[in-house]
Specification:
mainly alpha, 3-stranded antiparallel beta sheet, 4% strand
Length: 413
């Protein structure tokens, strides 16, 4: 052999070894090695995104984008036409999607998926019952204070506002405020009989009443089976994808999954944390309806600025109606300032991150547009649908930037 030595540094596409001879003379180290490559680099296996050329990948992405937009349109169409059937199914699928990570974690710990799903439903039921037993009396007590709100407003708030402004308000303001107090008291006293009459009249339409009860009762049942069979359902859908493009399409669905999981799980967690912060702060300020205002401001934060704005207005009304000194204003202001700072710099970055990636203006416009088109259901689905459309748009833009039209070249992609 002398100073020469052979090294096998590669493999053929089908796995056979290919020899590459490296000629290196020992007495002359200053001479650089010469590398003779016999065959080109291995071709990526089928199913790898790199196995598709740019033209094929572009076609796959465009078909996927069209399918996603069509699926969203189909969902909203079904909700508009068959709301009684589509809404329970959609709620069940949403619940299964939201809680699948929890059941998957239990399954990884060695627990059977059916047992894990059952434990999750039992824990959720106990939590809901406990929350109801606690919150219903609280809201009942808070609602009983509503007549006093308006009564004190006519005798305390109006004089305070007049002293701050240095001028007298029209007599009509005091009269209307006092009338609101009387009406609120009458409304509270008649709330029970009115609710009973509404239930009786609704129950009179037997078909609608039975359909509503079935729709509400079937949601947890469907959610249980969807959650139990979630991996099997996802596997069945994946098996229907074309084999050559399955990796690229799966990658796109993972991007959508990141966005949706960030919204569904993250926003609920952020809303719960902010609700606790606001409720505790307003309770320290000794404001009536502190828990209700905290829940509205916390979960309303899913629409940027709207929940916080409503919470601030309600909290200021509570301060005026339970005035005990300027310290209340300081506590309320500190509560919302600290809550917003924690939400912007700590809670949202850690819980949600940048996966949703929608600006506040985009969220507000989406809520207004979807709410106008599809009502309350549109408001609930506005942000998730917008997040999916954002992923679709980013994919389309990515492929467009790789075309000759964007690059200005005359060659192939």
């Amino acid at each position: 052999m002398g100073g020469d030595r052979e090294a096998v540094i590669g493999r053929r596409k089908r796995g056979s070894e290919r020899a590459v001879k490296v000629l290196q003379q020992a007495p002359a180290p200053e001479i650089s090695p010469v590398l003779h490559v016999v065959h080109p680099e291995p071709v990526p296996p089928a199913g790898d995104p790199a196995a598709l050329d740019e033209a094929a990948a572009r076609r796959v992405d465009l078909v996927w984008s069209g399918a996603m937009v069509g699926s969203l349109a189909l969902v909203f169409a079904l909700l508009s036409v068959f709301g009684g059937v589509a809404v329970p199914v959609l709620l069940a699928l949403t619940g299964a999607y939201a809680f699948n990570p929890v059941v998957t974690l239990l399954e990884k710990r060695g627990l059977d998926r059916t047992l894990g799903t059952s434990l999750l439903f039992v824990a959720g039921t106990l939590l809901m019952v406990g929350a109801g037993l606690y919150l219903v009396p609280v809201f009942r007590d808070e609602a009983a204070k509503l007549p006093g709100f308006f009564t004190r407003a006519s005798t305390q708030v109006v004089p305070q506002v007049e002293s701050l402004l240095g001028m007298s308000l029209p007599e009509l303001v005091s009269q209307r405020t006092a009338e609101l107090g009387e009406k609120a008291s009458e409304l509270l006293q008649s709330a029970g009989p009115t609710a009973a009459r509404l239930v009786a009249s609704f129950a009179g339409n037997t078909a609608r009443f039975v359909a509503t009860l079935l729709g509400l009762s079937v949601v947890p049942v469907l959610a249980f089976f969807f959650l139990q069979d979630y991996p099997r359902l996802m596997g069945s859908i994946k098996d229907l994808l074309p084999r050559r493009s399955v990796a690229l399409v799966s990658q796109r669905f993972r991007e959508v999954d990141e966005v949706l999981s960030a919204f569904v799980q993250g926003q609920l967690a952020v809303g719960a944390i902010l609700s606790v912060i606001y409720a505790v702060g307003l309770s320290v300020a000794r404001i009536d309806l502190a828990i209700a205002i905290g829940l509205i401001a916390g979960f309303g934060n899913m629409v940027p600025y709207l929940g916080t704005g409503i919470g601030v207005v309600l909290a200021m009304m509570g301060v005026l109606l339970s005035w005990q000194g300027p310290w209340q204003l300081a506590v309320v202001a500190a509560t919302f300032v600290v809550g917003q700072m924690l939400e912007g710099f700590v809670i949202t970055p850690r819980v949600v991150g940048e996966k949703v990636g929608l600006s506040a203006v985009a969220v507000i416009l989406a809520v207004l547009a979807f709410g106008e088109l599809f009502g309350f259901v549109g408001i609930l689905l506005a942000v998730p649908a917008s997040a999916i459309l954002k992923v679709v748009l980013s994919v389309v833009i990515q492929r467009y930037r790789r075309t000759d039209l964007y690059k200005g070249g005359a060659g192939g992609p």
